[in-house]
Amino acid sequence: MVTRVITLNVNGIRAAEKKCLMKWLSTQNPDFVCFQELKAQLKDLSEKHLTLKVQENELKSVLCCAEKPGYSGVSIMSRDQPSGVFTGIGEKEFDCEGRVIRGDFDNLIPQFPKFSVVSLYLPSGSASEKRQSAKFRFLDAFEKSLNNWNKENSTTGREFILCGDWNIAHKEIDLKNWKNNKKNSGFLPEERSWISEVVFGTGWVDVFRKLEPNKEQYTWWSQRGRARENNVGWRIDYQISTPKIASRAVSAWVEMNRKFSDHAPLVIDYD
Fold first, then answer.
1. Per-residue pLDDT tens for 136-169?
2. Model confidence, pTM
3. Which of 9, 75, 213, 266 has the fewest Cβ atoms within 10 angstroms?
4. Are 270 and 250 in contact (CB under 8 A)?
């Protein structure tokens, strides 16, 4: 049985819904959908933003919204309600921004009796040095969560898929103009070293790159100029998983034909 996972930074869930995001998703038959940058609080949303009808099934949402209106926020949609939901990383500075939500889905997928999906939105540092400093503080704090999840995997067999906008392009193949961005947020040496050492160096797997090692594929484009039309983009949206579930990934692609936000959906199937 194939499990389909889709992740997308919607850059405002209400705006994306008006661009027929939910209609498109209903044709894709997903099992899990992770959204980032909801830019809304629960009171702002209605059923059309929170549920998704797929054939005879209905996916429902769990959310972690920012305290600040119209800012950040992440969610997970699933066919079955999670057996456990956890939000944040234990750091007040960032937990009020709605950046991390984890859903546990146990005894639902035969291959993975203990299974968790995480939707996350790492800070961007492009606006100012102050925001870049905050991004580095988040990376330091988030390392604890990554290590704890790794321990869960090794001690209990729990499998994880971390979906989201990491705001870091890992290697030169992951952005078009890498030579001109070596000193820019998202491709700084310190950021790339962090994801190489703290994430991939501890066993986590970049599932798309595992399946497509040489493909120049992007998931985000600047809204300035004609970046999207000319495919001058960055690959900053990932599905990063524990090794066992990564080994079950069979196909991965980025939906380029639909424009719901400045990002594109990343779709991966696991068998």
1. 999 999 999 999 999 999 999 999 999 999 999 9
2. 0.97
3. 213
4. yes
Catalytic-residue membership of 165:
yes
Which residues span the domain enclosing 148? 3-270
Name the pairing type of β-strands 205-206 and 237-241. antiparallel
CA 229 from chain centre, in angstroms, equals 23
Q: What is the CATH number of the domain that holds 196?
A: 3.60.10.10
DSSP the chain: --EEEEEEE-SSHHHHHHTTHHHHHHHH--SEEEEE-----GGG--HHHHEEEETTEEEEEEEE--SSTTS--EEEEESS--SEEEES-S-HHHHTT--EEEEE-TTSBTTBSSEEEEEEEPPP-SS-HHHHHHHHHHHHHHHHHHHHHHHHHHHH--EEEEEEE-S---SGGGBTT-GGGTTSTTS-HHHHHHIIIIIGGGT-EEHHHHH-TT----SEE-SSTTTTTTT-EE--EEEEE-HHHHTTEEEEEE--S--SSSB--EEEEE-
C-alpha dist (Å) from residue 108 to 24, 152, 193: 25, 18, 36
How many domains does the structure of the chain reveal?
A: 1
pLDDT in tens, 246-260: 999 999 999 999 999
203: left (phi over 0), alpha (psi -120 to 50) or beta: left
